Amino acid sequence: MPATTTGPAAAGHFTLLYFASAASYTGRQSDLFTAPLPLANLFAVLEERYPGMRRRVLDRCAVTVNLEYVDVDVDVDVDVDVPGVDEGPLERRPNAVIQEGDEVAIIPPVSSG
User: What gap in Å lies between CA 30 and CA 98, rounded to an integer?
Assistant: First the structure.
């Protein structure tokens, strides 16, 4: 189960930041999750922790890992990365894995008027 955090991730974990409607839905600004975690599994893990979140929030959100926007492809079979093998930019890697110490953000769309 994730724990609320406000600082750097503890050993073996990554920090997940929630903004706007994601923060409202979870009632938190951040969580710690165990690393490594395949990026493609992120939404399933969040849905398990916060039932209904995928449909109500996540399907419309952007995701960043270490301040870089990434695509979360929920239909891809994921293998864990092999250390030392560079498979290209994180945002284009279907088997990307969130690593210990990473900072992940859930960013809902912003409207103005």
Answer: 16
pLDDT in tens, 40-98: 999 999 999 999 999 999 999 999 999 999 998 644 444 444 444 455 555 455 679 99
Round to whole Å and give the CA distance between 26 and 51: 10
Residue appearing with tokens 């399933």: 44
Instruction: Classify residue 44 as left (phi > 0), alpha (psi -120 to 50) or beta.
Output: alpha
Cis, peptide link before residue 83, omega less than 30° from 0: no
DSSP for the chain, written as a single string: --B--SSSPPTTEEEEEE-THHHHHHT-SEEEEES-EEGGGHHHHHHHHSTTHHHHTGGG-EEEETTEEE---TTS---PPPTT---S-GGG-TT-EE-TT-EEEEE------
Angle (CA) 80-58-33 rounded to 5° is 45
